[in-house]
User: Fold this.
Amino acid sequence: MSRTLADLVEMWCASSFPAPHPSSVKIMKAIRAWLLVFVIGLVLSGVTAFPLVTEVRVLTDVLHAVPAPDALVAWIDRVREGLEATGTNYPFIAYGTDWLAFAHLMIAIAFWGPWRDPVRNIWVIEWGMICCLAIIPLALIAGPIRELPWWWLLIDMSFGVFGIIPLIVVRRLIKRMATDSARSVPNVDVGV
Assistant:
């Protein structure tokens, strides 16, 4: 059986660039939806780290206007006092939180890789999962050193706990997509 060059090119293209399987399209949509949730969380965490003094002022006004636990009100008042004193006397210290905000935004950009090619960039998802887990020992070690109340550490650790959930879902979806793709790629002999 004689094959033309066009036949060989068509077979090579079919094996190298298979049409997406309908289930792969659904999986990709789900991956992107969960990634969007995670990235929005990172961006919000980053953007809100810039105007800390303003945010804490608003928060203290709200906490003094509504019924709130005394320990929470006292802690937020102390945070406001510390941020205002630091901003007045040592404004350059806030540059550290500017870098924190910047880091959150840059980490969010790293998830562009899995958005484009989840199977190839699954390592970004796994790295993000490690980062989420690492929040817990950081909070447990640095929190007491920095004299944070124990209940605030729980809030900080919740970012890791809730952050890892969409990443676990995304990782499972990527594994399923990789398995489906491996099954759908035909083994084509181009006869060369």
Summary: Residues 139 and 149 are 11 Å apart (CA to CA). The two ends are 13 Å apart (CA to CA). Residues 150-184 form the longest helix (35 residues).
